[in-house]
Each structure stands twice: as structure tokens, then as C-alpha cells.
Design a protein that fits this description.
- It is built from 7 helices and 2 strands; from the N terminus they run αββαααααα.
- By secondary structure, it is mainly alpha-helical.
- Helix 2 packs across helix 5 and helix 4 packs across helix 5.
- The longest helix has 12 residues.
Length: about 120
């Protein structure tokens, strides 16, 4: 567990412009705790137009190895904040994630929020 943001920040999932999935996992898990919510929201906000991040978030949501992990809840939350143009490029996988029977695994709460995909 991290007691200060600076400790977690040192494990940034972006190194030299490349995403590290293991470190991203830690950020997503930590996003489900309220301790660093503001800092993590600011961090992810910087990357809302990052197609690679969108793909990785969908990887977490669609990979059964992470089933039930807080990383999936964090992935769904941050996917919902991603740029719509970026998400359109991942339409098929986004719709697959959206079809999950578990509410918190769906990035958007209902189908009408997806009219922008058309």
C-alpha cells in the first residue's frame, strides 16, 4: 500500500512515451481507493486521447485473468472519460465490454450513452 502520492507517482505507467501494463494495473487498482483519486484523475486526464491507453483499458476489461479485479473497475471508469474519437477506433471491443452482464464492467451505464458510436 502507498501512503503518499509521490510513492505511487514513481511507478508511473508511462515511461519514455510507452505504457507499462503492470504499472498501469497498479494505477487502476489504486484508483478504486479514495486515497489518490484526485491525483489519478489528473494523471489519466492527460491521456484521454491516447489510443494505446484505450486499448490497454479494454484489454483489462476483456481479459478473464483480471476478472473481479479492481483494475477492471478502474478501466471501465477511465474508458468512460476517453475521447470519443479514440473510442470509435475501438468500437467492436468497446461494444463487447459494454455487453458484459456485470454493471461495473461496463464503461457506460446504458446503451443510449453510446449513440455517438454510430
Amino acid at each position: 500500500m502507498f501512503s503518499h502520492w509521490e510513492e505511487l507517482e514513481k511507478l508511473s505507467p508511462v515511461q519514455n512515451g510507452r505504457w507499462d501494463k503492470d504499472r498501469l494495473y497498479e494505477y487502476l487498482v489504486q484508483s478504486c481507493c479514495m486515497t489518490f483519486q484526485e491525483e489519478l484523475n489528473r494523471f489519466f486526464h492527460q491521456y484521454e486521447q491516447d489510443r494505446q491507453l484505450a486499448g490497454l483499458l479494454l484489454d483489462f476489461l476483456l481479459d478473464e485473468d483480471y476478472d473481479g479485479s479492481d483494475s477492471q473497475m478502474g478501466a471501465a471508469f477511465y474508458l468512460s472519460r476517453m475521447d470519443r474519437a479514440v473510442l470509435r477506433e475501438e468500437k467492436d471491443r468497446l461494444l463487447l465490454a459494454q455487453a458484459n452482464e456485470v454493471d461495473w464492467k461496463r464503461p457506460f451505464s446504458n446503451a443510449c450513452q453510446l449513440s455517438w458510436l454510430e
